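Task 17 of the worksheet. Students: predict the tertiary structure of the chain below and write it out as structure tokens. Keep your answer in the requested format; marks are given for formatting as well as content.
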Amino acid sequence: MNVLQRKLTTKQMALVDTLVATGCSITKAAAEAGYAKGDSGRVTASKALKLSHVQQYMMTRIQETIGLNATKAAAQVSKLAQGAKSEYVQLEASKDILDRAGYKPIERAQVQVAGDISVSIDLS
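Model answer:
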């Protein structure tokens, strides 16, 4: 059975959903998901989190959460660029917006070569 065909149990889904939503400890998430109390529940939950289909579900949930929160983060950076009290904060937020829009300044690198170079050509 491949990873995509394996089904998550209700407890596994609840465990992942709790971890992603709250960022709490595995012990607390295991208790809320219905695993056994104490160390045995934590151990069972930890083993479940190592299963490839559970990890795949967790990565999907994390990506969804980040995607939903990206709009809030973009709005906050825009707000800082327009109204922060510190001009430095306004500048950094503005540079971040420009960078993400593809207007990053060219990075200049200065290269120095130290040493003597001598070339001798023997035409005999």
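Marker's comment: The chain is about 65% helix and 0% strand. Residues 3 and 120 are 66 Å apart (CA to CA).
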